[in-house]
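Researcher: Sequence recovery benchmark, item below. Answer with residues only.
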């Protein structure tokens, strides 16, 4: 009985595979949580001025350009694959401490790079060197959440948009930026996806989505295909097994 089963499974193509990335010159990690030394910052338990060496490749973003994949995780680094992901070569970036999470887009004749801060960078190459072009002239406040979890989207008509939101209840927001100067919003941001656990129970916080009073709507990502727009996002917290993705279509 075992021999036929072994032969059957041997004939099946693998569903998944592991392809570890080489990580030379791995940078020191960012401010760490939940360590015993140092004074915790009451906002989120982050330790101000405290740094840990740890291996982390959070929030990976991939960009297809000129027959190559470019991969950017959180941190001062990038990887390039010219054989469709079989092998990757490490490429350091000149912009240090890019932070969480990276967003990069090819817009017109240059590549725009950003992260959780308000600062934008630009380069003629996906690997830089990147130069600071300025800070986004948009002040969060009221219902508008902090400018975290940003994603830049360059439409095929030359317009430029920014999507953002990492908060308990504020939802996912979007704003059109000046295509020639990404630091300038063309109008106030608008809420695109509201936290709504009544209609979407999977957004509620907790291991069993048991807390409908808060969540973490985050990681907005815009895709366009065949004239339709697909705005994806995640909820309700990375620490829970209920963490999942949703998608709105327009």
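Model:
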């Amino acid at each position: 009985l075992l021999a036929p089963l072994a032969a059957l499974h041997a004939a099946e193509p693998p569903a998944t595979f592991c392809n570890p990335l080489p990580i030379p010159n791995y940078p020191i990690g960012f401010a760490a949580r939940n360590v015993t030394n140092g004074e915790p910052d009451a906002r989120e338990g982050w330790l101000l001025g405290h740094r840990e060496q740890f291996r982390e490749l959070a929030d990976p973003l991939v960009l297809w350009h000129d027959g190559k994949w470019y991969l950017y995780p959180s941190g001062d680094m990038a990887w390039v694959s010219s054989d469709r992901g079989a092998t990757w070569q490490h490429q350091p970036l000149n912009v240090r401490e890019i932070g969480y999470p990276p967003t990069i887009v090819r817009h017109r004749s240059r590549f725009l790079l950003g992260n959780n801060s308000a600062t934008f960078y630009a380069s003629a190459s996906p690997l830089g060197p990147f130069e600071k072009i300025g800070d986004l002239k948009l002040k969060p406040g009221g219902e508008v959440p902090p400018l975290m979890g940003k994603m830049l989207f360059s439409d095929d008509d030359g317009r430029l948009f920014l999507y953002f939101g990492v908060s308990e209840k504020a939802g996912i927001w979007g704003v059109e930026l000046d295509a020639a100067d990404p630091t300038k919003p063309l109008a106030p941001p608008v809420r695109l996806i509201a936290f709504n656990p009544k209609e979407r129970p999977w957004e509620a916080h907790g291991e069993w989505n048991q807390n409908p009073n808060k969540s973490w709507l985050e990681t907005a990502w815009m895709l366009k295909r065949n004239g339709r727009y697909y705005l994806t996002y995640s909820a309700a917290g990375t620490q829970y097994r209920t963490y999942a993705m949703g998608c709105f279509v327009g």
